[in-house]
Amino acid sequence: MPYVETEEQQMLRKQVRAIGEKYGRDYYMKKAEAGLSPDELWSEVAAQGFIGVNTPEEYGGGGLGIYELAIVCEELAAAGCPLLLLLVSPAICATVIAQFGTEGQKERWLPKLASGEMKMAFAITEPNAGSNSHRLETAATKDGDDWLLSGTKYYISGADTADAILVVARTGGSEDGRGRLSLFIVDTDAAGLEKTLIKMAIPGADRQFTLFFDNVRLSADRLVGNEGQGLAQVFVGLNPERILGAALANGAALHAIEQASRYANERAVWGKPIGAHQGIAHPLAQAKIEIELARLMTRKAAWLFDQDLDAGEAANMAKYAAGEAATHAVDTAIQVHGGNGMSDEYGLVSLWALARTLRIAPVSREMILNYVGQHTLKLPKSY
After folding, report:
1. Is the whole model's pTM more than 0.85, yes or no?
2. Final residue in a domain of this structure, among 68, 90, 119
3. Using CB atoms within 10 A as the burial measure, which of 154, 160, 179, 316 is most buried?
4. In a domain, 271, yes or no
5. What is the rounded average pLDDT for all residues in the chain?
6. What are phi and psi of 196, to 5 degrees?
7. Residue-range definition of the domain harbouring residue 212
């Protein structure tokens, strides 16, 4: 694994950061507080080819990898504009369709996902299943050549701005009661689909929804991959999601520490900048070290995935490390700002809420610890 990025990757970072800084944190928060999607930012990032940077070239993408998409995600977040749908539309959905979709599905969906013209949400979580994908209740049953989809999905990001949703549903069961899962593409305006906004305590540009499917009719060409093989297919998309989640957290952490460092240099008390005091400098330095360690693990995970190597352990570790580093970094930045850290002007409280959320989703820190305990340390399964 190379420890120094290529000139092309470094240039990508600069170009994406420039777009992010053109819009900035104020633009993002105004959109979030108004309950609006940052469409102008999304469109400009897409117009430069950055949304589809990881999509195969033959379907209109950049032909690069998750590493480059993680750069896009991190740099936008570092500029104060975290785009949550990057974890979903290009990272999960485009990856899964590119690997398991039919030629017709690839030609239909990938070019528009790569261009940013179309967005696709992802629906796996449910009220009664949580992280236990084996116990999903949403089911698809055969009706002639079609499928009928019924059930409820919970905390689905961006369902209001997406054109379609990649849904995980049961299409049978095994003797131990576990569901045999399959993947379906559902239009967001499909008859029988209702969306209910989940009111969150924190503002965000990508809103959360509960989805209700009531005998939504799907044609046979909406099944992605093989019937009953959905769980294995989902995990191909979940590693990129975790890598992108880590990149988002790393970017948010960088934004907070860069802002706090500027403040510590400019804010003068008792005749010198507050950053001259070790009580300010050391916590910032510690947070920076933690961020860089998390970034390194994120790069490792992305590189492994792009090399078609097992990235599960690294992706989980990256997500854990980035969530912890981001939460500590933003908390440190708030403390450095003192009372100003709690004001709307500096935007750190909303950033703390994002960082704290990234310790929970996608995939909670506890489930990651379960994974590492069981699969890395070979300890007995705890759940």
Report:
1. yes
2. 119
3. 316
4. yes
5. 95
6. -120, 125
7. 121-228
